[in-house]
Amino acid sequence: MIFSFDLLFEAVLFGVLLGCFYAAVSIGLSVSFGLLDVPHVAHPALMIFGSYCTWMVASWGLDPILAGIVLMPAFFLLGVVIYRFYYETFERRGSEAGVRGLAFFFGLAFIIEVGLILGFGVDQRTVQAPYIGSSWAIGEYRIPYRMLVAFGVALVLTATLTVYLSKTFTGRAIKAVAQDEPALRLMGANPVRIKQWAFGIATGVSALAGAMVIIVGPVEPAMDRLYIGRTFCVVVLAGLGSMTGTLAAGLILGISESIVLMMLGASWAPAVAFGLLLIVLGIRPQGLFGR
Amino acid sequence: MVAPLLQVKAVSKQFGGFTALSSVSLDIAPGERFGLIGPNGSGKTTLINCISGSLRNEGGQILFEGKEISRLPAYRRTRLGIARSFQIPRPFPSMTVLENLLVPSAYVIHLREAEGEAMALEILRSIRLVDKAHVLANQLSQVELRKLELARAMAAKPRLLISDEAMAGLAGAEVDEVLDILFKLNESGITIIMIEHIMQAVMRFSQRVVCLDAGRIICEGTPQAIVGNPDVQKAYLGA
Amino acid sequence: MSYWISVGAILAAAFLAAISGINEYVFYAGYIVLTFVVLSTAWNILGGYAGYVNFGTGAFFGLGSYSAVVLFQALGAPLLVQIIAGAAIGAALGFGVGIMTLRLRGIFFAIATVALLFIMETLMVNWRYVGGATGLQLLRPEVMAPFGSYTRMLFVVMALLAVIAVSVARYIQVGWIGRGLRAIRDSEEAAECSGVPTLRLKLFACVVSGALMGAAGAPMPMYLSFIEPASSFSLNWGVSALAMPMIGGTGHWIGPVIGALLLGSIQQIVTVTISNEINVLVVGVLLVLFVVLAPDGVVGLFRKWSRRSSR
Question: What mean pLDDT do residues C149-162 have?
């Protein structure tokens, strides 16, 4: 194995872009699991569903990112419905709900995955756009445009959501609802509606995240399994409830994965996210900035 | 001078940036009836959690019968003789009242099924819950749940019982009933720490009272002295 | 006592069937259903009794398969040794993941099991000795009399494993360990304050569960005459091992058995007559339906029905 600083630098550069992309696709989970404590193992499946929806909308001529944005309201509503159902069926009932809630989302993920296979087949799908396929050459390094696009969208998404959560009333209510529900009730806010709204936002964001996934590379129905590792790794490493932590954690994962990809090849890359997740759980389960 | 049963020495606890307990010290004598009061958020339950082991204290030491217990997990402390009831009752909902008591009887006292049942029934009889012995815990009323909390703590045959707001939300006669149970337990030799908001219950029950505010002890003395103390009044009414 | 008589009768029936002239397919499909009896029973010891959900049954199962393959290739180990090794390795894995994550909330343990799954698969994909991504073909040893085929023998072996698994689950459930696990599931903090050594009991359940899953995985390579990472470490094992107890009923040892027999048979039929994808869809849909509508499973439904009819 030839070790060169050039290769390492390129890997790190790619890793930074990849990391921001991972942060962006995990932000929805940061809200639904990190803030709302919903055991949302179906988050990656919903996101991949978003990828396929993007593919469909894009095949009518729309740019993939615009397609993702257009899908956001519909996914927002989907999120509201799912949370409402989850809340009425499980969260209300108390302790036994833990196991059943987990089982519910696990089953949901499988239903979505198989639904995608039945609807679209197992073949990979890709989208076309002017920025997909070409690269930006700086010196000896080539940065694929699609990664830059994902990077840009990721930053905008993360910044917007962070600002929303800290500056607006609803946003701060969302942050508070996880920690101090009684206080929220005293202020006259309805915790269930706030959580519903937040879960809707998280799912709406997943639509855009799904668009980015299919921009960055081809998608297939079973990809949600791999993304369970990546998104949960980012969210746990960040520390539950920390938005800025999501960016940092995403970068750590992206760079690690990129370096492993460079040094050991593609057959080892899938294990990086899961391995990092186990390490975090074992050594510092509250993550970098956990509450 | 009898050696204290429980010694809390300069115990502190932080939650992120928030200081819940700040160098709290107190001694509890064996057989004592001890009251712990303070406004909401003053750190009472945090202190209890540190003593019972649900939380680890960060600074200071906790000694029970002269032995340092700060590093012990909660189940070990229960086996040493510290039992607690929970502010919001935490029964085992899938089990009957009787089966709830069989857990500590098996895991603390190490009794077999038959002996455990006998002991449990006796406890239930003493607190007048025996007619609900075979009812599932998730079908009990508020006051019955509170009694179950105490019964479960009693089934661990503790030397120190911490009662965390066992009377919260109960009305007159029910308060007297629970107070009666605690008095009887104390007469049988169990040291009791009572956390309560119902002042007249604390006054009637306690031999000594400590008042917490914002994680610090602001007053310690007899119930009469505490009630008259201006700092205590300020803590409850002020700010 | 009646339990052991039934057990004896079942084993005798399995043995007699295996040496009879019944169609080979019965044993081919029956082996898989029995495997699921073991897996769902094992899952339920930690998931149903203690309330800690394992998504990564495939990690333990697949590891059992691979350790059997390694022992077989390297030492020509007989089936019994493979199974014991599978159990030991499954137990070790259970202990490892348990000690790392059982102190944390249930969802962290669940996600950690998924992580194990993928890490195991990646390790095996990159290990040439066991065939890497393409896997390995295996030559079965000679089958012993009185069995007419290796599959028939494996069927009886798995029936025995199923009986062992169910007996272990029953022993745990009925005894004081089961009461402690139930306390943990109902209210872990209250259990700890009632003297239950929660971490130890959870670890125990995790180790036993892992051991049974590993043992169930060991004969699989011989059954298929083949092993490869993707199917050994598939998340599909996890969803079945979870769905079966949830459908059958998690409070009682008979629940996973009912769930495995029911869902396992449905799966065999659907896979053969329709497709594998629809099979997974059926599992997912049934899981969600039962979790939402009949949380106590078939056992719960039966109890409700018998209570109503006795009035």
Answer: 93
**Residues A26, A234: Cα–Cα separation, whole Å:** 7
Q: Report d(CA B191, CA A233) in Å as an integer.
A: 48
Whether residues B94 and C176 touch (CB distance < 8 A) is answered with: no
Q: Which residues pair with C61 in a beta bridge?
A: none
A239 pLDDT above the threshold of 50:
yes
The 8-class DSSP code of residue A137 comes to E
How far apart are the CA of A96 and the nearest CA of chain B, in angstroms?
A: 9
Q: Is B169 on the interface with A (CB under 8 A)?
A: no
Nearest-Cα distance to chain A for B86, in Å, is 16
- Cβ <8 Å between C189 and B94: no
Long-range residue pairs from A159-168, CB within 8 A, at least 24 positions apart, any chain: A161/A27, A161/A31, A161/A201, A161/A205, A161/A243, A162/A243, A162/A244, A165/A243
Q: Which CATH superfamily is domain B6-237 in?
A: P-loop containing nucleotide triphosphate hydrolases (3.40.50.300)
Q: Is A286 on the interface with C (CB under 8 A)?
A: no
Structure-model confidence comparison of residues A172 and B110, the more confident one: B110
Instruction: Write the CA distances from A140 to A17, A135, A151, integer angstroms.
Output: 17, 12, 21
Q: Which of A186, A164, A185, A160 is nearest to A175 (CA)?
A: A164
Mean pLDDT, to the nearest integer, of C275-288?
91
Q: Please give the model's pTM, rounded to 2 decimal places.
A: 0.92
Per residue in B123-170, pLDDT (tens digit) is 999 888 999 999 999 899 988 999 999 999 999 999 999 999 888 888
C2-309 is a CATH 1.10.3470 domain: yes
**Nearest alpha carbon to residue A252 among A240, A238, A239:** A238
